[in-house]
UniProtKB/TrEMBL annotation:
Required co-factors: a divalent metal cation
PROSITE patterns in the record: ISPF
UniProt-annotated binding residues for 4-CDP-2-C-methyl-D-erythritol 2-phosphate: 8-10, 34-35, 56-58, 61-65, 142
Pathway: Isoprenoid biosynthesis; isopentenyl diphosphate biosynthesis via DXP pathway; isopentenyl diphosphate from 1-deoxy-D-xylulose 5-phosphate: step 4/6
Alphabetized NCBIfam families for the sequence: ispF
EC number(s) reported in the record: 4.6.1.12
The gene coding this protein: ispF
Pfam annotation, one family: YgbB
Native species: Candidatus Taenaricola geysiri
Sequence ranges assigned to domain 2-C-methyl-D-erythritol 2,4-cyclodiphosphate synthase in this UniProt record: 1-154
Protein family: Belongs to the IspF family.
Catalysed reaction equations from the record: 4-CDP-2-C-methyl-D-erythritol 2-phosphate = 2-C-methyl-D-erythritol 2,4-cyclic diphosphate + CMP
Protein name: 2-C-methyl-D-erythritol 2,4-cyclodiphosphate synthase
Keywords, sorted A to Z: Isoprene biosynthesis, Lyase, Metal-binding
């Protein structure tokens, strides 16, 4: 077994859609970024690359490359999954924490997990999504940003 850890943070801004785990979440603000800024999927991709010893998301999908402008991060996750498979690993499980003050994600967490499992072609029960507030403290707590922390466990094929 190999463990991988991923982290990401994006700033919130008006006029952007909020996409988390590939799911459109109704919100007055969305995340800023070169791609769709899906902070959860970016942290998952980094955790996958980390577990496989492949480096990080910026090496594979640089934010200076025009072809990734406004791209759905689900496409990046699919590409990352193929690289993991090509390196002879399978995904045992994924556990994630999204840190945000609002909106509440309770209605969306299952859909995110199902969506992520679908992209990765693994059973839904292998993906667990949690959401936390930062109690009004720091940038995430003040509603200026959303962060995600992810741990994955890969097995060798
Ligand atoms: Mg990112």
């Amino acid at each position: 077994m190999r463990i991988g850890f991923g982290y990401d943070l994006h700033k919130l801004a008006k006029g952007r859609k909020l996409i988390l785990g590939g799911v459109l979440v109704p919100s007055e603000k969305g995340l800023l970024g070169h791609s769709d800024a899906d902070v959860l999927l970016h942290a998952i991709i980094d955790a996958l690359f980390g577990a496989a010893g492949l480096g990080d998301i910026g090496e594979f999908f640089p934010d200076t490359d025009k072809k990734y402008k406004d791209i759905s991060s689900s496409i990046l996750l699919d590409k990352a999954a193929k690289l993991i498979k090509g390196a002879k690993y399978y995904i045992n499980n994924i556990d994630a924490v999204i840190v945000l003050e609002k909106p509440k994600l309770s209605k969306f967490k299952k859909k995110m997990a199902g969506n992520i499992a679908g992209v990765l072609n693994i059973p839904k029960g292998k993906v667990n999504i949690k959401a936390k507030t930062n109690e009004g403290l720091d940038a995430t707590g003040k509603g200026m940003a959303i962060a995600a922390y992810v741990v994955v466990c890969l097995g060798e094929v």
